[in-house]
Amino acid sequence: MKRRTFIRNSGFATAGTMLIPHFLKAYEQRPEPSQADKVLVVIQLSGGNDGLNTVVPYRNDIYYRERPVLGIERAKVLALNDEIGLNPALEPLRRLYDDGRVRILNNVGYPNPDRSHFRAMDIWQTASDADEYLSTGWLGRYLDAACSGCASSPHQLLEIDDTLSLALKGQRSNGLATLNPEQLYKQTQNGNLARLAKVPSAAEDDHSPVGYLYKTLAETTSSAKYLYEKGKMQRSTATYPTHELGKRLKTIAELIISGIDTHVYYVSIAGFDTHVGQRAQQDRLLKQYAEAVEVFMNDLKANGQLDRTLVLTFSEFGRRVKQNASNGTDHGTANNVFLLGGPPRASVVYNEAPDLTNLEGGDLRYSLDFRDVYASLLRDWLRVDDERILSKGFKGLKGLLS
Amino acid sequence: MKETADYSKLLHLYRRAGLGSLPPREVPLRKAVASLFQISESFTPIEVISAAEVARQRQETRQTMMAGADPKATVKDRLKENQELTRDLNVAWINQMATSQEALRERMALFWHGHFACRIQQQPYLVQNYLHTLRRHALGHFGDLLMAVSKEPAMLQFLNNQQNRKNSPNENFAREVMELFTLGRGHYTEKDIQEAARAFTGWRYSPEGTFVFQERLHDPGSKTFLGRTGTFRGEDIIQILLEEKQTARYLTEKLYRSFVNEVPHPARIDALAEGFYRSGYDIGKLMRTIFEADWFYDESNRASLIKSPVELLVGMQRTLSTTVTDKQSLLYVQKVLGQVLLYPPNVAGWPGGYNWIDSSSLLFRMQLPFMLAGTLESKVQSKNDGDVNTQALNRRGRSLKATIDWDRWAQTFQKVPPKELPTVVASRLLAVLPAAGVLTDITQKAGAYTDRTAQIRYLTLAFMSLPEYQVG
């Protein structure tokens, strides 16, 4: 046992609030977020969404030849230009497109793509190379960088889920995961936890593991209180779909409208690993995605928050061009990425459609590195030095946001 | 009364080397160290699937297919069965860790599993053999371990050596054997990787799951590797890697950071590495030197490591002499806390340390004792990783509740006067005592129980749910 710590802490217990560490008070002095404070919402489609049946190359004969059963009938595709169009399940997204709030990026990937779910997901979440293993996520490092020297709070990166994704883990700071801020608040206000969160050993000694744990606990409690108290100011009046993604986006909308100072929200929906009987499964999920996102965007718009909110949608990989023997598709490589929201401007298909004549072992070749998408988001939207976060100096994508 | 200084050292040793079991009383430290090694000399294999069963499976699949069964359904059944077998292996190992006498061996095997991280699906027999190798050589010679793991079909599969052939090399295994298993980054060139990959061509495994060297796929030409030239084969590359002192240095630092302190101490590590190298990479000897060193018991090295989820889960069971019986629940806890045995995130293993901790994992860890005692059901949902083939991992368990013999546990405090009970229970469970206010508070609450066993039960659960219990 640590006699030293023991004595010091006992002194602390009598010293009272005078010594409450600054991060416990931090939220009380939080400035109100203004219209200039940008918000990023990340929607992760887990399992590898089939990009070719999401944004369909409906004029491409190879597509129909390789997907005799899975191919989406030309007449049903919601055309965006004379090459590609949306899966009809994405009708709501089409309306957003017409409202000038959609940017579609094709062929997003990275060199030597990995086809395993967990590995590919880690690569996307950490922004690493295919043969590099990082233990911090790109958004976690964003929080590190955005707040070096100041007191960051976990809720500034908020995942609407029970457990925290690697993307939101940083070197010094971590995001916060909660499905329900009210429940988290109640949990942290429960007698024992509330008392422990006030044990101030962290203030002196957050370099020891125990100090770090107490600091984490104190920050969690502080963030939970802030989210609960400030976040309940605004209840959304919009009608969201009752499925999981609908509920989670509703939670996010209420927090944004309430003026919570969260910079990044993270949410994922699973089920895209469609090796067998893909059509019904994927269409159902895409429909859920599009209808939830439409209500979300309209809700934010009605409340004057859409201009400062951008939604990024990605999946860990796309799928094989050729359908498999089970009317599904197997793991592939490059994929499309959606950016929704932000100030109104013309919707765009940012780059060329997939080239089905130039495949690599039956898979699409990437032409945009996903880390260039991140670089643009970090630099031009979240306004931080992206090189500190992505280390390698990705140039970003010209004209995407700037 | 607090625990004596000597007993507190024993507790420290057992937290680090004994998976959280409680040391015997009044044993001199040196004797305790010796005994930890001695009882780990034996080895208990884990088998959930036999070679005969694998053969029968293959035969059966063939017959069902020939009889005209739906091939997709057959494959699907097999898939499910294999997932469950891998899960059973995971659980069998957790149980072994929670109950076996050979605590140090299992603790070392856990370290090697993170070091030689390997994750393959659908082939539980290969996973079983890989695990067997880790556990068998856990305290032996690193050279034997490295060679055996490198030839494990699971590893050859995971690092794509099945695709590594003459004229079309796959460098994955050659790269990781240097970057992660032996030298560490910065001690070899890309050219070394290319040359080593050529030497490993022809290292494959048979459909029955045994290592084979296929000469016709091997590149017999001359290779230059780390300054030596010859018509090297895989075995030669591994031998050369062992001749490099950097290998001893790299491994020793990693062991030091896992067993002593996350902050490396270069002078100590250099000295240890020198001995490790000279002993011909005797792992047991190195660990013994560490556990016998005075500095191992320094205040600065106490309470300095955050327990991994598996150490936490196993430690609670060992301390309270109980086991969790529900398989899915064991998987569930590992998943929520981010360490599923046999499913490491990638070949680099779990990053560990502070990385285990975030708001959600900490709150869950603090609830775990109450789940084990059956007074709390977790509502936390583990993350769906999107992989349709790992559904067996995602299913919820029924209950984490374990049968705990509280009377027996209470008896171990028999001689402790009532007034000293809280401090004594705390000292036994925690590497560092909580702040006085916390201790007072818990003591007061425990005072509400008139029954001594109930009181000890309350104290135990309260201390196990503290942040202090997360470190060892």
TrEMBL record, chain A:
Top-rank taxon: Bacteria
Any Pfam family: DUF1501
PANTHER family recorded: BLL7424 PROTEIN, DUF1501 DOMAIN-CONTAINING PROTEIN
Protein name, UniProt field: Uncharacterized protein (DUF1501 family)
UniProtKB/TrEMBL annotation, chain B:
Superkingdom as given in the UniProt entry: Bacteria
InterPro entries: DUF1800 (IPR014917)
Protein name, entry field: Uncharacterized protein (DUF1800 family)
Species of origin: Rhabdobacter roseus
